[in-house]
């Protein structure tokens, strides 16, 4: 005879051991970490020893914002320059990935115009699909 509410069998010792191991492992995740001091050869090396511990900035771009008598906000702060360099580096990596995917692997969006050379692809796309090109430019401007 079939019954939906059949009683479960009593848990076995293997099941109890697995449950205990899972609970012990999850409890260890919340235990405080022990502090261990690590030493390495890099820790004893001074920062940028070639330039006396200073950043390499022969033109003094990082100090231009300190010029007295210049227009306000004429020269950007070094933090902005660092963030801009990181952003431009990431954008160039993304652009190179796109060039590699289209030229090296031959991947293209369905329906997108195909140019002979990746350097001429942008004007070909703007000429053949001005609506899609305008949408991408509008998205970039946001």
Which features would summarize this protein structure in a list?
142 residues, mainly alpha, 5 helices, 48% helix, 0% strand, flat
In words, what does this structure look like?
- The protein is an all-alpha fold and 142 residues long.
- Helix content is 48%, strand content 0%.
- The chain is built from five helices and no strands.
- Helix 4 packs across helix 5 (130-141).
- The longest helix has 27 residues, at 78-104.
- It is flat, with a radius of gyration of 31 Å.
- The N and C termini lie far apart (67 Å).
- 0% of the residues are buried.
- The model has no long low-confidence stretch (mean pLDDT 81).
In a nutshell, what does this entry contain?
With 142 residues, this protein is mainly α. It contains 5 helices and no strands.
Write the layout of secondary structure elements.
Elements: H1 13-29, H2 41-44, H3 78-104, H4 121-128, H5 130-141
Helix pairs in contact: 4-5
- In whole angstroms, how far apart are the ends? 67 Å
Beta percentage is: under 5%
Order of helices and strands: HHHHH
Class per helix and strand makeup: mainly alpha
What is the typical, i.e. mean, pLDDT? 81
Rg calculated over all Cα atoms? 31 Å
Poorly predicted parts: none
List the total number of helices: 5
What is the global morphology? flat
């Amino acid at each position: 005879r079939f019954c939906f509410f059949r009683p479960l069998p009593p848990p076995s010792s293997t099941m109890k051991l697995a449950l205990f191991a899972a609970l012990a492992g999850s409890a260890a995740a919340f235990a405080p970490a022990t502090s261990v001091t690590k030493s390495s050869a890099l820790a004893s090396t001074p920062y940028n020893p070639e330039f006396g511990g200073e950043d390499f900035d022969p033109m003094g771009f990082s100090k231009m914002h300190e010029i007295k008598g210049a227009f306000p906000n004429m020269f950007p702060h070094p933090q902005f320059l660092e963030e801009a360099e990181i952003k431009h580096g990431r954008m160039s990596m993304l652009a190179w990935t796109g060039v590699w995917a289209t030229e090296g692997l031959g991947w293209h969006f369905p329906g997108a115009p195909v140019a002979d050379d990746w350097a001429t692809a942008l004007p070909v796309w703007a000429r053949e699909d001005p609506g899609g090109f305008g949408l991408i430019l509008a998205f970039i401007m946001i």
